[in-house]
Amino acid sequence: MLRYLLNKIVLVLPTLIGITICAFAFVRLLPGDPILAMAGEHGVSPERYAELKEQFGYNLPIWQQYAHYVRDAATGNFGVSISSKRPVIEDFMTLFPATIELSTFAMIFAMVLGIPAGIFAAVKRGSWFDQGLMGTALVGYSMPIFWWGLLLIIFFSGYLGWTPVSGRIGLQFFFKPVTGFMTIDSLLYGKWDAFRSALSHLVLPAIVLGTIPLAVIARQTRSAMLEVLSEDYVRTARAKGLSSARVIGVHALRNALIPVVTTIGLQVGVLMAGAILTETIFAWPGIGKWMVDSIFKRDYVVVQSGLLLIALIVMAVNLIVDVLYAVINPRIRAS
Amino acid sequence: MKKKLTFAAALLAASVLGGVANAKTLVYCSEASPANFDPGTTTGGNDFDASSRTVYSRLVEFKHGGTEVEPGLADKWEVSDDGLVYTFHLHPGVKFQATDYFKPTRDLNADDVVFSFDRQFNKANPWNGDKYLPNLTWDYYTGMDMPKYVAKWEKVDDLTVKLTLTEPNAPMLANLGMDFASIVSKEYAEQLEKSGKMADFSTKPIGTGPFQFVDYQLDSVIRYAAHPDYFKGKEKIDDLVFAITPDATARIQKVLAGECDIAPYPNPADIGTIKANQDVTLMDQAGLNIGYMSYNTTIPPLDKPEVRHALNQAIDREALIKSLFQDAGATPAENLIPPTMWSWDKDVKADAYDPDAAKKVLAAAGLTEIQLWASDRVRPYNPNFQRAAELIQADWAKVGVKAEIVNYEWTKYRSEGKKKDRPGAFQIGWTGDNGDPDNFFATLFACSAIGVSNYSSWCDKDFEDLIQKAKKTSDQAERTKLYEQAQVVFQKQAPAFLLAHSQVYAVVRKNVSGFMMDPLGIHRFDGVDKAE
To answer: How far, CA to CA in Å, does B196 sit from each of A71, A249, B109, B431?
Structure first.
């Protein structure tokens, strides 16, 4: 197991180097210039432009800029934002809990609906439910997040008035963050109304962010279940006279869940990508919205360090999933 | 027991919330997060709404809803006959805000004023450089040419400050009403310097303005309370909250749902819905802006005014404006400056649509091909450069001119566009900083702006003489005459096609009173009240 783990960690290193190159190159390949973006409509004289380029170190050869970036990142220095002048890591740590909270609820939504729906579709293969579910999953997977979010806001918040339009919590609730998770902090302060408000603010963004993972999980569960249900040991279990619920719930599901766990792990990357749009629509103060703002401002420092930090987290989650997978499936370990 | 405890907790929560509900709270759905709260170091309108217009005051202020300069922290001022020395007399007894992070021991005085400007240019001032914040650029101070015009700031006595200029500069007074000229507390700066927490100056602001800063939850909510000792009297609303909501549709839905009281910049597509709603008012005003298209006047045949006029005449401007601005509407631009600005000449008219006349002139000049520039960015004065380019391209095709559309990303677009040898017609625009006509005429078409913001590379001696003379004249009536003449020259020479001045909108709930649209594009909450 230790060898397996070490192998995985060694594999992470080249990926990490690749990510630093991508993050560094991505923001520089985007057309645009941070100095001109800062100057706004006023423009800037060629002399001042040269002066500012030197001040920010953008006059240095590109390899030297990259070397500085890697050196600083390796020592835990992720730089200071060009526009806000605040340390990137400070903003990241402040905003990250909001993204985690939203992603967690989105994932809960996706799993709670996706896994049972997938099981049911597999058991009732070919039925109208199965056809309908797979059709809906395809629609959910293809739905543009931006459009879906606005549609839900207009219908549920605007027309029905059931949910708040956007934000993390009602504006009347005001307390200093402890964990940064509104649902937890409100409980720590003993404010039930605030907790309810935080939950109600999570409903629409969690649905929007969870829609794609829900579709993927439902489809994956269905296909894994179908495969397992045709296995000999399931047939044996049925022949032994076990109840259908026991055969599906205990014998089939446990084995079918192995690929589903991997799928769920992979969805972390999807959630991070989806958070960018979801957070912007729902004014959710997380790292997705922060990255979008920084890309528009051509804030090189925030974009390259933010991407690296996000990639590190996605890699860490995937590593954990790999390890878990090996734990629940010894054949992987052996191979 | 458990039930009793729950009931007691609910009662407590209700009483706390009840207390909050009794305070008069105004919620503004702002469009973006502020970079920080030090207006000297930022450039965005949303930065200024959150800092300079709420927390700070200036020596002079722009009249609420207008562009005229009126007394602010300075009750009055004198300008020397040679226009070189401005003496400001400060309002006595102005209090800085007392918060949990700073308790002022003295009132505002001349030291604060001198410090507020000194820190923006004096490299020896510890607040000018990295010791305060990394990579400070003081964009507005340098952008408004302050280093060129300011010789020195001096304290005469506690309530008198003297500004000496290097040469007469009439727009200086308007510059001092701008956000970068907000007056900060020197005492607070010294306290932070001593405690080694200088960066807090940009995150926990202290000013003399109508509201004091309470808290900022990054990218989410900014909270302010009314400044109890505000020198113009405490505001009627107790608490001001900025709920940061970047998406325009979500912002408007929040106002319609009653989660916000005021929201700026609705989508043009939502204007019909807003107008139909009984609970909100759609406020609008002609913005202090201009959308235009610069011809490079140095490259033949665009160096001839008659060719430029002919290109203007070939464009169906009315149809173009209708297609671009849709329900939001815009005022066709007759002059470079908008009608809300003083010195606007009502007798000057832009070229009328006359494709037949245009065709003859263009054929005679041999103009058959031209580059037409468009960018990807939505600007207040032009919501869709690409669409505008396509419509103009079609109009020009009708008069025998084939336009090739050139696209670039916004910052690249401007850096390429301002090059002296850039060919063709370049779409651009401007939003005024301070309501002074110089901020349009000189910034956009002075000879010295070639290569910076004069995208026409146009340097006309008559025009230049008029605007430079107006810049050095203190008398506004005299300046008005000079700018009127400049507008006549501009029309005759036609260095650009003038498109429109766009409308600026805000959505306000009907129980809010006293909120005014501002031509400078700022959002102010002093004087605003809310009925429960």
So the answer is: 27, 62, 24, 39
Alpha carbon distance B235, B530 (integer Å): 11
In chain A, residues with a C-beta closer than 8 Å to the C-beta of B217 are 177, 285
Q: Tell me the helices (H) and strands (E) count for chain B, helix number first.
A: 18, 20
- The answer, yes or no, to whether residue B397 has pLDDT greater than 60, is yes
Interatomic CA distance for residues A254 and A250, integer angstroms: 6
Question: How close A23 comes to chain B (CA, Å)?
Answer: 20
Q: Is A153–B253 a contact, with Cβ atoms under 8 angstroms apart?
A: yes
Q: pTM for the complete prediction?
A: 0.83
Interface probe with A: pick from B37, B217, B420, most Cβ of A within 10 Å? B217
B466 half-sphere exposure, CB direction, 13 A CA radius: 19
How far apart, in whole angstroms, are the C-alpha atoms of residue B299 and residue B369?
13
Please report residues of A whose CB lies closer than 8 A to that of B415: 33, 36
AA identity, residue B309: H
Q: Classify residue B290 as left (phi > 0), alpha (psi -120 to 50) or beta.
A: beta
Residues of B within 8 A of A94 (CB-CB) are 218
Q: Which of A310, A305, A256 is nearest to A286 (CA)?
A: A310
Size of interface A-B (CB pairs under 8 A): 150
pLDDT tens-digit series, residues B475-517:
889 999 999 999 999 999 999 999 999 988 999 999 999 999 8
**CA torsion angle for B52, B57, B58, B63 (degrees, to 10)?**
90
Using an 8 Å Cβ cutoff, are B221 and B244 in contact?
yes
Record: contact A43-B134, CB cut-off 8 A: no
CA distance linking residue B317 with residue A138, whole number of Å:
46
